[in-house]
C-alpha cells in the first residue's frame, strides 16, 4: 500500500510511518518545514514539502498521485493561536480531502479528538474551544464528502508510554481514558485496510483487546 500522511512530523505520524515502512508499505510524509525532512526519512518514509496553509488542492494532489490512502494527522500544535486551529486542523483536513479526490484517492483516515461532541470547558480557554470546534468541523466535512471512504479516529488523552498492543475501540461515546501514541499509530495502520470501518467514527483508549481483534470486532 502507498500511504500519504499529512502532518508527517507529528508524534503519531512519525510512529505510523515507521510502522508502515517496517511492514513494507510505501509512505509519503508531508511536512512544511524542510528541517523535518531528515526525521521523516529516518522512519523509512519519503519526505514531501507542502504547506497545508498555503497550498492549493491541485498543488497538493500532485504529491498524492498514485497513493492508495491518505491520513490527516496534522495539527497546529500546542502554543498555536485559535486562528491556526481553523487554518490547520479544520481547513487542512478539507484541503487534503479535496486533494485526495483530485488524485483519485478514496481512502481517508482523519485523526480527530475526543470531546468534540461536548460543549468546551470555558476554564480551558478560547484556544481549546477553537481546537474542538475545528476538529468537529473537519469531522463533519469529511463525513459528508461522498468522494471519500473515510474513517474518523478520536484518540483519548495521548501519552508517550510504550504501547501495549491492547486497546478499546468503539463507536462513541466512550468514558474518558488514555491511549499511547504507539497504540494509536498501530490502530491507524490496521484501519487503513479495514474497509468495514468506512463511514465510522471511533473512539480509542487503552484496553484489554489486541489491536487486530478490536478492529475486526467492529465488523460484527
TrEMBL record:
Gene: yhfK
Enzyme category, top tier: lyase
Sequence ranges assigned to domain NAD(P)-binding in this UniProt record: 7-194
InterPro entries named among the record's database cross-references: NAD(P)-bd_dom, NAD(P)-bd_dom_sf
GO molecular function: lyase activity
Residues passing through the membrane, by range: none
Assigned keywords, A-Z: Lyase
Protein name per its UniProtKB record: Putative sugar epimerase YhfK
Coiled-coil boundaries: none
PANTHER family referenced in this protein's UniProt entry, alphabetically: FLAVIN REDUCTASE-RELATED, UPF0659 PROTEIN YMR090W
E.C. no: 4.-.-.-
Amino acid at each position: 500500500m502507498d500511504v500519504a500522511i499529512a502532518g508527517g512530523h507529528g508524534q503519531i505520524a512519525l510512529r505510523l510511518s515507521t510502522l508502515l515502512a517496517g511492514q513494507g508499505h510505501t509512505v509519503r510524509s508531508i511536512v512544511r518545514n524542510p528541517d523535518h525532512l531528515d526525521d521523516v526519512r529516518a522512519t523509512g518514509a519519503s519526505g514531501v514539502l507542502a504547506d497545508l496553509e498555503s497550498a492549493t488542492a491541485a498543488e497538493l494532489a500532485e504529491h498524492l498521485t498514485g497513493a492508495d490512502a491518505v491520513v490527516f494527522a496534522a495539527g497546529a500544535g500546542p502554543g498555536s493561536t485559535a486562528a491556526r486551529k481553523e487554518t490547520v486542523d479544520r481547513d487542512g483536513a478539507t484541503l487534503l480531502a479535496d486533494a485526495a479526490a483530485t488524485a483519485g484517492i478514496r481512502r481517508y483516515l482523519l485523526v480527530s479528538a475526543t470531546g468534540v461532541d461536548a460543549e468546551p470547558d470555558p476554564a480551558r480557554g478560547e484556544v481549546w474551544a477553537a481546537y474542538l470546534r475545528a476538529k468537529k468541523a473537519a469531522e463533519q466535512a469529511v463525513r459528508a464528502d461522498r468522494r471519500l471512504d473515510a474513517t474518523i479516529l478520536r484518540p483519548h488523552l495521548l501519552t508517550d508510554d510504550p504501547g501495549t498492543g491492547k486497546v478499546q475501540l468503539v463507536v462513541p461515546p466512550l468514558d474518558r481514558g488514555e491511549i499511547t501514541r504507539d497504540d494509536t499509530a498501530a490502530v491507524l495502520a490496521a484501519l487503513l485496510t479495514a474497509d468495514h470501518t468506512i463511514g465510522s467514527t471511533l473512539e480509542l483508549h487503552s484496553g484489554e483487546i489486541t489491536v487486530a481483534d478490536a478492529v475486526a470486532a467492529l465488523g460484527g
